[in-house]
Amino acid sequence: MKLLVFGANGGIGRQVVEQALAAGYSVRAVVRNPASLTLEHENLQIVRGDILDLSSITPYFVGVDAVISAIGANSLKPTTLYSAGMANIIKGMKAGGVNRVTCISAAPLEVGKELPFFEKVLMRLVLRPLLRNPYADNRRMEDELEASQLDWTVIRAPRLTKGAHTGRYKIGLNKHLSALGLSRADVADYILKYLGDRAAYRARVELAY
What whole-number distance in Å separates Cα of residue 165 and Cα of residue 92? Predict the structure, then answer.
């Protein structure tokens, strides 16, 4: 299987690339600055592209089986990185004949009534106000996917950590899980293990220990 990875030089993206290569996948990693991804492997192709510039990424969808977007904004200011980036990914996928895509969103977009009181307060009174701009664009990104008719999976991640790759976590398909933190390595583990899981197609997934 050949994967196209956006945000490959970020925390989750790099984990996806490393774990995919270790599992025998071929990986095409798209980054704005190829020198920023200091990995070498016979099954790794590092290419230059900007997710906000459709023409710079369109050729890379040819010949791949699935797309993984691990892009992330490094600012609290208003952004269209997620939604505009996903719109371009969708156009590239349709032009290249690719149907499977997984992307990273945020757990606090919805506050489930089944969550512990402390988590509800944290999400509603701290995280949502602080991260309102990137969260708003995450919602727009999810809307883009819902309208696409592609086989998408949105991972609504909790607070991400540098913890170990355990491969052991709970999976919530279209339901909320209590999670105060999860390692980026285990998010990548889920992405790769469940790429072919049709139960996760057109679903929002939460992960927790």
Answer: 31
